């Protein structure tokens, strides 16, 4: 595939200088355009990525998609849109995607983006027989990352966030959910959400902040109580009465998450936190049955959460409850599967993806990027693991990382290539989406548009302004 951007485009897809009129962008020549048009998929439709007819081009202007149509029609629509705003009808830059595949920008619906330190030592502890929850109970795991994160400065956390977002972007993600949860006290949780908000403002990746105060019981609360049960209860009260009001007042988090798992927070505790969140106008989601069935999938269905995440071990009743909720609702709970987690932890466990799809539950896939269970910033790698370990087809994994992942975040303006949607798209260096999870671990991204801005070209990040490329990009 050759890559040519003619007429000296700038990073914001417009000429940069305020005096010059806006320009359109046209992506042409792709071997395949997977539009994902039509909204959230479930059941058999999870396998239908909506492949456009050959010769389809995508036209964008002002950060939005103007048309997805055969090239002549797309050019005409773009010319009309340019004329409408008083610009020259041919003021357009062309991205030559010959031989490549065009998809919507990927959406990563579940990450723990912001943390300090790393935990490679735990891999060796697990190789010697310790389990993930045993390491946590001994004060390691999440609590080790909490200590490192509390000690890190805002500048350090920002720099780390930028570094990993850049990596995610170069693997095709244009929207990334980011949870707090390594602060576990009001000041640090607010700090993490503020940094997520700042990264969202900076762009080019759109960051969607989630508050996860109930990620673990912090060491100082555990030490102040006679046993683990009393400590968990005390911390849940602090989350509901201290942290949550402050998070709601800060106004940055879109949703609230709870690690609902045997030995962490119970369904009853999760229900209380999530109901309090809802009363404050926040969306809700939960880490559900990641390692053992605890009734969390049932709770997600009962509450009508945006998503139930992980689902490594939902009970049959939990799957049935999600299915019943999906059948009854136009906005079903999305099952966000995170298959790199059991893979990275060396567990045989497989999320029951096929059972969920057959039951009519919409499935999304995320990386769960975090230092303990999934130090994996690449959504395409998670797609490969989903195909190979969960038995999803390439089309099902593409649906799971675009339109269904956007639905898991409650975002109706992205995840598909349709007129009016955000101009988030990826040109991949393969002729069909079926090869995306197949070349496992390969670097297939050639071009990324995020919000209409050309942010990756030739597989490399594009500098902020004033660049022009012909076949390659320079930093
Ligand atoms: O999604 N399960 C809880 N939280 C993360 C892991 C966090 C960590 O180990 O640091 C997860 O797997
Ligand atoms: Fe997680």
Describe the structure.
The chain has two domains: 2-104 and 415-474, Urease, subunit C, domain 1; 106-408, TIM Barrel, CATH 3.20.20. The longest helix is centred in the middle third of the chain and has 23 residues, at 228-250. It has an eight-stranded parallel β-sheet. It has a six-stranded mixed β-sheet with strand order 2-6-15-16-17-18, covered by helices on one side. The protein is built from 16 helices and 18 strands. It is an alpha/beta fold and 475 residues long. The radius of gyration is 22 Å and the shape is globular. The two termini are 21 Å apart. Fe (iii) ion binds next to loops.
Quickly describe the structure.
This protein has 16 helices and 18 strands.
In the CATH hierarchy, the third-tier topology of the largest domain is known as TIM Barrel
Percentage of residues in DSSP E strands: 15-25%
Continuous helix count: 16
**What is the CATH superfamily classification of the largest domain?**
Metal-dependent hydrolases
> Bound small molecules, which ones?
N-(iminomethyl)-L-glutamic acid, fe (iii) ion
* CA-CA gap between termini: 21 Å
CATH hierarchy class name of the largest domain: Alpha Beta
Average residue-wise pLDDT: 93
Radius of gyration: 22 Å
CATH architecture of the largest domain: Alpha-Beta Barrel
Class computed from helices, strands and strand pairing: alpha/beta
As residue ranges, the low-confidence spans are: 6-17, 465-475
Number of strands: 18
The coarse silhouette is globular
Largest beta sheet: what is the strand line-up? 7-8-9-10-11-12-13-14
Give the helix level as a range of percent: 25-40%
Number of domains: 2
Main beta-sheet strand count, sense and barrel state: 8 strands, parallel
